[in-house]
């Protein structure tokens, strides 16, 4: 047992100067430091239509919600989406939890990652203007 207790004492491995420098480094870090959140995004299947275009059809999209910004989502589609200030987005976030938003779509861009090469994968920022679900 004495050996185990000694191994658990992390301060035994660092001298006082090393601990002081570590404390100074941590205290100098910006509080607005960004964290990598890949893998924490939730994906939903949905569709979007540009309501400014007559006879507009819904285009299938994957809705990526990172939870960082409640007003913006990323839409992933197999074709570029048109820029619109009146885009209707619909998707299901869970059983009985259908979401419908009116918002803006930015200019689509092709994927930039290595796994996007050779794929028809376009990314569009969707800014929510209004929740258009029927209120019960």
Under CATH, the topology of one domain can be stated as: Thrombin, subunit H
| Main β-sheet description | 6 strands, antiparallel, barrel
From the N-terminal CA to the C-terminal CA, the straight-line distance is: 64 Å
Q: Can you tell me the residue ranges where pLDDT is under 50 for at least 5 consecutive residues?
A: 6-11, 23-37
Q: Which architecture of one domain per CATH? A: Beta Barrel
Run of helices and strands: HHEEEEEEE
Strand content: 35-45%
Mean pLDDT: 75
Counted by DSSP, the helix tally is 2
Any idea what the radius of gyration is? 24 Å
Helix content: 10-25%
CATH class of one domain: Mainly Beta
How would the global form be characterised? globular
| Helix/strand/pairing category | mainly beta
Order of strands, widest sheet: 1-2-3-7-5-4
Note the main attributes of this structure.
2 helices, single chain, 38% strand, six-stranded antiparallel barrel, mainly beta, 136 residues, Thrombin, subunit H
